[in-house]
Amino acid sequence: KKIVLFASGSGSNVENIIHFFKGNPEVSIKCVLSNNKEAKVFERCNRLEVSALYFNRHSFYQSDCILELLKSLNPDLIVLAGFLWKIPDNLIQNFPDKIVNIHPALLPKYGGKGMYGMHVHKSVKENNEPETGITIHFVNENYDEGAIIAQKKVTLELGDTPETIAEKVHQLEYEYFPKVIQQVLMGQ
Ligand code: GRF
């Protein structure tokens, strides 16, 4: 089974997923793709000896460069691990039900384009939500609206800040994202 990962930032989820599947002969991480040449994810891939490629807007939206790369790699699953750009429709159409995303909140609440990183946790805090969590879902043509695969929750306390909420959510991501990816891969 082959996975391709997309990331835009720190890539802590990418590193976690690489470690999780390292010992698994059935699953290989073919490469990591990022739209941000400054992303820390490149350092992580260099250290972990995983191929990593930078692409710009033109490659992603104005050419078939990334689509052709993905067709040649023919992954069983494309995993968005903190990837901030919208996936082009023709990429979705070429990989139906093969693109999964993780969102650091309980969709459909706190979803949508602007809702990423600390914005989500600030809104959750401002609304005094009793709980938050992660949503792992298939990617379709609308931001954060694909079929939900799994959700995991964590309760919030009065003393929580956006930072402590982010930490609680990251812990959920590290614990569950690789396991859910494995379930989707094995269920295919
Ligand atoms: C995670 O919080 C994930 O839920 C969201 O982007 C963040 C990525 O963090 N989609 P990292 O780059 O994996 O550290």
TrEMBL record:
Residues 1-181 form the Formyl transferase N-terminal domain. Keywords: Purine biosynthesis, Transferase. (6R)-10-formyltetrahydrofolate binds at R57, N101. Pathway: Purine metabolism; IMP biosynthesis via de novo pathway; N(2)-formyl-N(1)-(5-phospho-D-ribosyl)glycinamide from N(1)-(5-phospho-D-ribosyl)glycinamide (10-formyl THF route): step 1/1. The active site is at H103 (proton donor). InterPro entries: Formyl_transf_N, Formyl_transf_N_sf, GART, GART_AS. The record marks D144 as: Raises pKa of active site His. One of its GO terms (molecular function) is phosphoribosylglycinamide formyltransferase activity. Its EC number is 2.1.2.2. N(1)-(5-phospho-beta-D-ribosyl)glycinamide binds at G11, S12, N13. SUPFAM superfamilies: Formyltransferase. It catalyses: N(1)-(5-phospho-beta-D-ribosyl)glycinamide + (6R)-10-formyltetrahydrofolate = N(2)-formyl-N(1)-(5-phospho-beta-D-ribosyl)glycinamide + (6S)-5,6,7,8-tetrahydrofolate + H(+). Belongs to the GART family. PANTHER family: PHOSPHORIBOSYLGLYCINAMIDE FORMYLTRANSFERASE (PTHR43369). Catalyzes the transfer of a formyl group from 10-formyltetrahydrofolate to 5-phospho-ribosyl-glycinamide (GAR), producing 5-phospho-ribosyl-N-formylglycinamide (FGAR) and tetrahydrofolate. This is Phosphoribosylglycinamide formyltransferase. It comes from Arenibacter antarcticus. The gene is purN.
